């Protein structure tokens, strides 16, 4: 029997599903992971306010199964995929990842207010190795799905949506950190709520490792 995959646009009423999907069952009571979930909700609310759209969620039957998250980049007329993930082994290779991606492709072929009423020129992504042991990598998946490598930056992949479009990234999107007088003698960590609930866990881990390496050092965020 064919399995029913439902793709749903992330919205205020299902942000809990979007934010808890990545947390492994054995980490559901872990304070650090749950703080990451809370921070991800803040990030997602902010993105919804800014762009009206932030992610798509997949359900396989009744089960929460996957997500694809993205951000428009109006100055490049492209949509950047920050993450695709089907976390549970029992959901792998059942068409969830493909459906998430094709749903996003269909969506961004439509005119978008982000692009002044035009459709997107391409999807762009820089997949990172976040797969579990034995799981297919995002990079191999995107290549199978027809993404091309950016010539001068092969870690960056794109999927053209307009004939003849070749993606060339605009350099330097973020302002540089400028050291301040008051930062002297401190370790400064720059962190903000993000699309990944693991990021808070890694922030705490980084702080612990710095404290171990340099006992007594002041850490500021
Ligand atoms: C990549 C990923 C999204 C694919 O999801 P999925 O639902 O299992 O994939 P699908 O069943 O839709 O497969 C689509 C295509 O991908 C390829 N593919 C997926 N898994 C594969 C595997 N194990 N071996 C070979 N090809 C595979 C195939 O081309 C497949 O098409 P086909 O089944 O018609 O041959 C999933 O494996 C994943 O989440 N990987 C980790 C990604 C990651 O690191 N994210 C960041 C986490 S922090």
Notable traits:
221 residues, binds coenzyme A, alpha+beta
- Which percent bin holds the helix content? 25-40%
Number of domains: 1
Count of DSSP H/I helices: 5
Beta content comes to 15-25%
Secondary structure tally: strands: 9
- Order of strands, main sheet, comes to 1-2-3-4-5-7-6
Quote the distance from N terminus to C terminus: 52 Å
Quickly name the level 1 CATH class: Alpha Beta
Could you please say which CATH topology applies here? Aminopeptidase
SSE ordering: EHHEEEHEHEEEHE
Instruction: Indicate the low-confidence ranges by residue numbers.
Output: none
> Sheet bearing the most strands, described?
7 strands, mixed
Heterogens: coenzyme A
Question: What shape does the CA trace take?
Answer: globular
Mean pLDDT across residues = 93
Q: Provide the CATH architecture.
A: 3-Layer(aba) Sandwich
- Class computed from helices, strands and strand pairing: alpha+beta
Radius of gyration: 19 Å
So, the CATH homologous superfamily?
Gcn5-related N-acetyltransferase (GNAT)
